[in-house]
Specification:
Strand content: 5-15%
Distance between the termini: 28 Å
Radius of gyration: 17 Å
Low-confidence stretches: none
Number of helices: 12
Strand order of the largest sheet: 2-1-6-5-3-4
Oligomer: single chain
Length: about 210
């Protein structure tokens, strides 16, 4: 946390799906910033590369660790999810972290002109941390654009606001302990099946050491 807060770069959550679908654009974003393993597939890949100390760092927990550590003296900007979700997230943050310094927030749905206004607002308010929950690659593209105009710690969060606000339930402890969070998400959201099928090919390539 200290290293990344000193670096003022993007923190990019990496999982098996992101490795499998990685474009040259995403690879460049990760290589120029800080990637961290947010999934057992990414941890597995790191172990294969000889980094045996690598462990999973859940982004859904990491952003709250930053808020908990720095909320008294740093400012935060939150972007993402639907309007009711971001509103619920901000209300809960004010309860959980009284006195939190909010530089600003908005939902993750906007037109091109609103995107420009958002970036201008971030540049004007100069937050120390910017959390973006829009899913990949949209959140990485937005964070890259904002970072080029205002150096800060940027963290992509996917669906973390949905979980924090209570809209989406996170996997029970049993699934987390057994490293089966991906399976819980699959049975909770069957529509993810098409995306999860790719993990079979990922696993096969990992076994053959093709990554």
């Amino acid at each position: 946390m200290k290293f990344s807060s000193d670096q003022k770069k993007l923190l990019v959550a990496v999982n098996a799906e992101k490795i499998y679908n990685a474009t040259e654009e995403l690879k460049d974003v990760i290589n120029l910033n800080i990637g961290y393993p947010d999934g057992v597939g990414a941890v597995w890949a790191l172990h294969q590369k000889g980094m045996k100390q690598a462990v999973k760092i859940p982004g859904v927990e990491l952003w709250l660790e930053f808020v908990n550590k720095f909320n008294k003296d740093k400012t935060f900007y939150f972007i993402g999810a639907r309007e009711e979700i971001i509103q619920s997230t901000i209300r809960k943050l004010k309860i959980d972290f009284p006195g939190i310094k909010l530089a600003g927030f908005r939902n993750g749905y906007f037109q091109e002109d609103e995107r420009a206004e958002l970036i201008e607002d971030v540049v004007r308010k100069k937050p120390d941390f910017v959390f973006v929950a829009m899913g990949s690659p949209s959140q990485e593209r937005l964070m890259t654009e904002m970072a080029s105009k205002h150096p800060s710690v940027y963290l992509g969060l996917g669906g973390s606001f949905d979980i924090y606000s209570g809209k989406t339930k996170r996997a029970p402890k049993f699934f987390l302990d057994m490293k089966l969070e991906w399976f819980y998400r699959l049975i909770s959201e069957p529509k993810r099946a098409f995306r999860q099928v790719k993990l079979i090919d990922f696993t096969w390539k990992m076994l053959r050491k093709k990554y």
